[in-house]
Amino acid sequence: MSMPYFTPSQDPGANFQELLSRVGLVPRNVQGHSIVDIPHATTCVAVTYQDGVVMAGDRRATAGNLISHRDMEKVVKADTYSGVGIAGAAGPAMEMIKLFQLQLEHYEKMEGQQLSLEGKANQLSTMVRANLPSAMQGLGVVPIFGGFEPRQSKGRLWDYDMTGGRYEEREFVAIGSGSLHAGTVIKIGWRAQMTKSDAVSLVCRALWEAADADSATGGPDVMRGIYPIVAAISQDGWVPVPDDELAQVFESIIAQVRSR
Amino acid sequence: MTMPFYVPPEQQMKDRAEFARKGISRGRSLVACQYQDGILFVAENLSNTLRKISEIYDRIAFAGVGKYNEFDQLRQAGVRAADLKGYQYARDDVDARSLANQYAQMMGHIFTHDQKPLEVEILVAEIGYDASQDRLFHILYDGTVMDESRFSVLGGDADPISERMNTSFTVGATLSAALKACAQSLSGPDKTLAAVDLEVAVIERGNNRRCFRRIEAIEATSLMG
User: In this structure, what are the phi and psi dihedrals at residue B57, rounded to the nearest 5 degrees?
Assistant: First the structure.
């Protein structure tokens, strides 16, 4: 953004709203169109734990009642210390993630330093808001954002609504069609200052229950070796949990379920 | 059609720089320095309404010397850039270094491309969470940026004032001691400046979000007393 400098006749004076519109930062108006459902066909969750945040998401993409893709990555690294999970229409969602990752990298290179975690969360909010006209036509995208805050040395989480509203959560977030079940599991199991392995087990259990009750959420696909994406973000940055560890976690969940 | 005379670029730049320096030296000088709680600004200014020192953002202040309308326009651009960035990203993302770079770009462009260069020198200062993170960016009429430490002197009489500051400045001084040092350095041997001749402001570390505070003549008099 270049420095806003105006000729006397163009000067917006002390009006900040007017300044925003002069630099092109006012959101577009939405007219007509009916209200559409909340985004579907996904479960993404994130929880805080003692060193930061654990994020997880299932791998299934659906088109109507058919499974269209079995290894989607709906939870991805945004930059070294943050990640983003996404629910909604696959095309716009993937495009938004790509643009968001690039925006963070571009800012870092242009300014010579990273955006603050809150700045990144706000940036994502702007992008969701810009998608509102598409959302009103049924192509809604709703992300969650989590990361490690170096200044406070802790994890922080945000969820969003389709209008770009941004809400910081202290404990956990869950989005997508399976979020009711996943969220309930986490709500019951969440403890302050959990260890990483406890947090990983909890999000896996949440995804398991979501997949068990929601046809649009995929469970662990042992036959093909496809497991949910699970990653921890801490002082060490974004660290994905490897599949063989996840296989063990799911085995113990299966054993628990079997012994009921 | 008339042919313009050829002027070699060296000469052109020299003329412009001289023009700008002449304009700046007509005005009065300004000093900013670190003190125990932040950064202090002291300017010789007879007007109580046309300010040389002002607030840009939570922890950032602006000071200018030279032609008033020009540095005031720069001040407004800075406030706008800072407020826009804080709105678009987060308040923590607004920093003096980035502002100083933007000012440098703009002033450099005006110096080489416009009819006349700006007849101003500006200072963008920021307090960190401790004194080691304080920043003083001094930007000249041609876009030259200097990252200064401890104190910064702007204006035509900068050299003698800097020498006096060098002897009177102490690290971690109280507000009162720092103000006295600045006032004495601005005064020099043949004149004495009283609090009413000065514009004084600080950005101070504390619990407030907005750290900028003006020190009016009454308070300045008692601090200098």
Answer: -155, -170
